[in-house]
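# step 3/5: fold
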Amino acid sequence: MSLRLNAAVALLTALAMSSTAFAHGQGHALRRAELSSERHPWGQQGDPGKATRTVRVDMDDRMRFVPDRLEVRQGETVRFVVRNRGQVLHEMVIGTRDALQAHAELMRKHPGMEHDEPYMAHVGPGERGEIVWTFTEPGEYFYGCLVPGHWEAGMKGRIVVRP
């Protein structure tokens, strides 16, 4: 094989391996190192260095969040430390009620679907995750676990963003 062909094969192999790692969640830390500028109705990814407070959120197999209601101020950046005290995978996903319900329905149809956004923390049993989020608009938003059946079982909470 020529040197140029060897280099091309090596590059393609490296790209394939890195895309496989991202598809299986291994790229999580790398992607989170760069702040997303994407805005959502419920806010945008926050800069961890600008978090004004930390909120601990516990999840468990009773399909509940503690606390299940939060108040924040518009423009506030919150670090959520999410702990799974249960025996099964749980997640905390922030959004509007409609967005979360639509996402929960999609997860029921495709339970193995990979998804990872800055407003999500997927947390294995006994582990911790983190979300740093800036709430840019006043209103009522929600968080929930979208593992199939968990949202429907009541695993949700409410966030009120005050001006």
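# step 4/5: annotate
Confidence is low (pLDDT under 50) at residues 1-31.
# step 5/5: archive (pending)
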